[in-house]
Amino acid sequence: MHIEQVEKMCGGFGQVTIKHLLEEEQMKDKCGLYAEVTINPGCSLGFHEHHGESETYYILKGEGVYSDNGELRRVKAGDVTFTPSGSGHALANVGSEPLVFMALIIRG
Amino acid sequence: MHIEQVEKMCGGFGQVTIKHLLEEEQMKDKCGLYAEVTINPGCSLGFHEHHGESETYYILKGEGVYSDNGELRRVKAGDVTFTPSGSGHALANVGSEPLVFMALIIRG
């Protein structure tokens, strides 16, 4: 487990904190990322596409606005998002508390 | 997303609730399970081994006793467990609140 802090991630605002739960060798090239991610109020993770892999977000805490391949919707704890290969997404914290979610990238 | 309730899971006590976040076709045979699991106070998930796959638990809420291939340790929110192929694990809720965790099975 290691923690990474990324500024202006994918062209977003502010800082994103990524708590990596698995190391690469544990994922056996089946998954590309398994992490708990925190976006502070006013910060965001910019729009980006996935190719040859999908990414799932599972919201644990906070309130966000999610771009599902460009289409915006509100997300909150308990919500699941899924970006298949060839699509893109982004997520902004629009609340007053940290926005915390699980991120899982699956190859294929 | 669908919810499953399992009695005496893997020989454990009481009931375990599994909120499946991804369906099989979304996991492309790279992962076997991606779920938020809840074990109520006094309930447990019995000991079981994994072969040809690993399983990671990430504890979100509550307090438990985890069997790491037989060795016991306490787990709480923020803890990560990893069971490689060929090893086994179990988890019991020993607190007064629900024990909630993420479960991810990766093939290979």
TrEMBL record, chains A, B:
Name the UniProt record assigns to this protein: Cupin domain-containing protein
PANTHER family per the UniProt record, alphabetical: CUPIN TYPE-2 DOMAIN-CONTAINING PROTEIN, OXALATE-BINDING PROTEIN
This protein's UniProt keywords: Metal-binding
Domain of life: Bacteria
GO molecular function: metal ion binding
Residue ranges constituting the Cupin type-2 domain according to the UniProt record: 36-103
